[in-house]
Design goal:
single chain, alpha+beta, five-stranded antiparallel sheet
Length: about 100
């Protein structure tokens, strides 16, 4: 988690500390994504009002700590969004899916 926090912008770091998620902007489309603590089912595209629109499930190969997976998700969305969208499985986010208190580190 320390490495993840070092890679976050000041705004992302503040979001993560206050809301337990941070937002990134897709490098290809400019869409906003929210990354919540976790390794799967923890990313969602948000609409212009900040509501979850579409969940995305993608992760790294192998077992890595949560912070490392979240960092990889951040870098992937910011730098190769179209590649992520090509392999990610989408889902309809549930009302309780993205909630506070999921952080494990």
């Amino acid at each position: 988690m320390r490495l993840l926090r070092e890679w976050l912008s000041p705004v992302q770091r503040m979001q993560f500390a206050e809301k337990e998620y941070f937002e990134v902007v897709g490098g290809d489309t400019g869409r906003r994504y929210r990354i919540y603590p976790g390794t799967m089912l923890n990313v969602c595209e948000v609409d212009e009002t900040g509501h979850p629109r579409l969940g995305l499930c993608f992760r790294t190969m192998g077992e890595l700590p949560i912070g490392d997976v979240m960092l990889a998700q951040k870098i992937a969305l910011e730098n190769c969004e179209s590649g992520v969208l090509a392999v990610a499985r989408s889902f309809v986010p549930g009302i309780f899916m993205f909630r506070r208190g999921r952080l494990l580190g």
